[in-house]
TrEMBL record:
Gene3D superfamilies for the chain: NAD(P)-binding Rossmann-like Domain (3.40.50.720)
Organism classification: Eukaryota, Fungi, Dikarya, Basidiomycota, Agaricomycotina
Name of the molecule in the record: C-factor
The keyword Oxidoreductase is assigned to this record: yes
InterPro entries, sorted: Fungal_SecMetab_SDRs, NAD(P)-bd_dom_sf, Sc_DH/Rdtase_CS, SDR_fam
Family of the protein in this entry: Belongs to the short-chain dehydrogenases/reductases (SDR) family.
The UniProt record lists the keyword Nucleotidyltransferase: no
Species name: Lentinus tigrinus ALCF2SS1-6
Amino acid sequence: MTTDRQYTWLITGCSRGIGLDLTKRLLESSENFIIAAVRNPEKATALQALTLSGKGTLIVIKLDVDNADAIIRSVEEVKAILGDRGLDYLINNAAVNQEIDKPFTMKIDGWTNVFRTNVVAPALMAQVYLPLVERSTKKTIVNVSSSLASFGVAHDERWASYSVTKAALDMLTHKQHKERPDLMIICLNPGWVKTDMGTQDAFLTLDESVPGIVQTLTSLRPEDNGRLVDYRHEILPW
Ligand SMILES: NC(=O)c1ccc[n+]([C@@H]2O[C@H](COP(=O)([O-])OP(=O)(O)OC[C@H]3O[C@@H](n4cnc5c(N)ncnc54)[C@H](OP(=O)(O)O)[C@@H]3O)[C@@H](O)[C@H]2O)c1
């Protein structure tokens, strides 16, 4: 059921991990109308099961963010779903990584694909969804980044190719904020979370990260704008 008070969300990469759990948590509130994008809706059984539960509204759409034409085409589908409403939150969550690689041995060919998913796709998403974001109340774009992107957070030489893409995503966010300071545009660090990408070695469970993400995203402050913000609502250094 939809009401006038609902905030609208478009989240990429909702088949599993943080995207799936974020969708589940947002659905706990009737205030949220969520468009969850996945590249294989027929295989996203855990996500599809959520359509039967929760107080909010969930619509699942197909979107492979590696396909630029599909991103562009998706706007018409999302417009039709939203009607005369704008898009309050665009969450660029989908991402990939190579194995835990190091700079002098990482696979250079495969890196191009990682860069396309982690940087080029969020850039295009923001461009084509800008009119819908502008039409909304919250006007928020969230690029899901990582503390691995930060020069100010200590880390070692591993995850090299992935870390570089997330640092590029942070700079994209900075540039987007400089061009459109009237919008709310942030990078989000979810913490190191136990997912397929984060592995079971991660410090945090989804239960420890995602409620904080929801709390943070729904209470963003002017000082967060253009910054790297984490799941505890702390601003991290670049
Ligand atoms: N987990 C962590 O510790 C951690 C830490 C810092 C940042 N992050 C960031 O948090 C976000 C979510 O990570 P996660 O841990 O949930 O990862 P994950 O468990 O590996 O899930 C990745 C999600 O992205 C989707 N995806 C990948 N490529 C896609 C594409 N081309 N089109 C559409 N969807 C695509 C996957 O869909 P399929 O099922 O179709 O593959 C999946 O739903 C990412 O941006 C990641 O970089 C994670």
